[in-house]
Each structure stands twice: as structure tokens, then as C-alpha cells.
Amino acid sequence: MNSISAMGGNTNSWRIFTYKELHTATNGFTEDNKLGEGGFGSVYWGKTSDGLQIAVKKLKAMNSKAEMEFALEVEVLGRVRHKNLLGLRGYCVGSDQRLIVYDYMPNLSLLSHLHGQLADDVRLDWKKRMKVAIGSAEGILYLHHDVTPHIIHRDIKASNVLLDSDFEPLVADFGFAKLIPEGVSHMTTRIKGTLGYLAPEYAMWGKVSWSCDVYSFGILLLEILTGRKPIEKLPGGLKRTITEWAEPLILQGRFKELVDPKLRGDFDEDQLKQGINVAALCVQSESEKRPNMKEVVNMLKGYDPRGKEMDLRIRSVKYKEELLALDQPSDDDDDDDVDDYTGVPDESEYGIFSALEVQKMQDTYKHYGDKKVEKHV
């Protein structure tokens, strides 16, 4: 596990757990302690001997593919230090066991508040939503600009934004992250992520850059403001993306109709317009026209005049019908292929969209099982 040993000088804030410690903390990995399950394995709630509440990601099987993703996530988690990123509490490596330990987030995920079991409680008022939007943006900004090598997350979405006891957002799940060397603007790689959040150049051609995360954040921001899912299923089996729904309302200046009705009109209209403005910039189809995350954070805080020059037109790109047709539940792809981290595309293989429906999610960490793309290009 060379990648784990090469994490650098962050050894003072995480540690190696024994399997016995984690077995005890999770009450033997019982069903009562299970937070979620997906193709990778399961996540359990636990409490350490010193009273710390933890979430333990326990991998189901160790093939070369799972080993690579485990090593990558531990390496990235060991590098990041930011209040809006879910850092590494520790890990455990046994002869046939791989476990990653995080802090447990008592307010679950953003997804659970927007679409899940907490949505009806409306705990996420307007002020908290803006806090989540800005904090998430600052976490991604750190990944793109403040850590070396720079990190592209590749799976920014509502289920990967966890909320602490004060509703401070923490961007989580770095299993798909890419470490980008200095001076490299983009790479071509195997497509991973969740349909609805994927930038068009990435979904179609596997071209990944920091701008892909910006696009995903734009979709996430629209989701926070509107309470709509990235892809909605309409009567008759039709599907509509959030940008297709929002664009006509934006063009007609009907901003109030964009707001999540669960807020019952309790929102700041100026912040709404600014948020829609930022989202429209982020989800432009041409990647070079999107702002970087420094500009996004500044605009959300009201510091950057660029937003005032925007004509508030999304100009979104529709996913091709064959892509939308794949947006359905299916069995996880359990092949033993090693993911292509070299940036060299493999044009001879095609994967599938897989895993659980988002609406089936019951708790924080069940996002590890929702629909993700795994496709060779």
C-alpha cells in the first residue's frame, strides 16, 4: 500500500485502527448499526472507547479495483484539511479487510434534507441552505487550488455533502477523485460519477478537469435552491433534467417560482437571484466559459461583479436519449477491471449506470449506493 504510506505530514490527526476496535465500536457490525449499503460494501455507525461517534466504511470484497479505490480515498483523505471536507479519522488494513473511518455526521446528508426522510421537517431553512452552498463551494475551492497536487472530486452531489451538528457542510466520498499534477489542465479518463451532475464533455468524452466539478456544483446549487432532483421522472416514462425545467422560468424572470415550495416563501430574493446567476454560469455547456471555484465563492458571497454581467440564460445541453435510458437501477458492476487512472482511454469497453435509486436512500451514508456511472470511453 505505497500510496497510503506516502501521505505526508498529516499523521497527527488520524490513526490506524485494529479490526477488534472497530468490531467493538460497531457492536460487531450488526444490522442495527448499519447506516447504508452499496456495491462496495456497507457503512456502520459506531462509538469508540473514548466516546467518539464514527462512521465505518467496510469494503465487501478486495479485488484489484476495490483495492485501488480504497488506496486512493485514503490517500486523498489523508491530504485534505478543511472545515468543509470530511477528513480521515483512520483506517484498518487486515489480510482480507479494508475499512475507512470517518467522523459521524449527526444531521445526515444534504440529500436526506432535500429529498429523503428529513425533507418534510424542513430543518434546512433558507439561511442554512446558503450556508451549505457557500461552505460546499469553499471545500471544493480548497481541493482545486489550495492542496498539492490539486484534486478533482468527480462526484459532487447532494448525497456527498454531509451536515454536522451546526449544519456546516462537509464534502465527502473521495473514491473517484483525481490528483492532477501542476500544469495539467485536463485529462481523459474512465467516466465515473452520477448522471444528472456530470458535465457534458465528461459524460460524452471522458474529458475531466476542474470545470467538471464546477458544473456539478452548479447542478447542486440549483438543487439546493429549488428542492428539485437533478433528473426527474415524468408521466409516460419521460425524464427531465433540472436545467431543462429551470431555464424557461429563468428566461421569463419568474425567480420566485424556482424556490423550493417547502420554504413557504421564506427566502431572500436578492440571494436567490445571485444563486441562480451563479448556477447558470456554472452549468454552461462550454467548459471554458464556466467560472472557477474562487469566482464561484466570491459571487455567492456577493463580492464579484461578474454575476451582474450574466444574462441569466443557462443554455444547458441535454443528455442524449441513450444516456438517459441508462438512468435506472441495475446490479452493481462487480468486474475485476482496474480503473484507468493513467488517463489513457480504453475505447473497447463500455460499462453501465448502476446501484440504488436515490429515493430509496434512508440515511446519511446510503449515498454510497446510489446511481453512479462507470463507463469506459
CATH topology term of the largest domain: Transferase(Phosphotransferase), domain 1
Question: What's the Cα radius of gyration?
Answer: 20 Å
- Model regions low in confidence, pLDDT < 50 over at least 5 residues: 1-12, 329-372
Large-scale geometry: globular
- Helical/strand content category: alpha+beta
Number of strands: 17
Mean pLDDT, all residues: 78
> Number of domains in the coordinates?
2
Order of SSEs, N→C?
HEHEEEHEEHHEEEEEEHEHEEHHHHEE
**Helix count, per DSSP?**
11
Helix content: 25-40%
Largest sheet: spatial strand order: 1-5-6-4-3-2
First and last CA, distance: 28 Å
Tell me what the CATH architecture of the largest domain is. Orthogonal Bundle
CATH superfamily of the largest domain: Transferase(Phosphotransferase) domain 1
Strand content: 15-25%
CATH class of the largest domain: Mainly Alpha
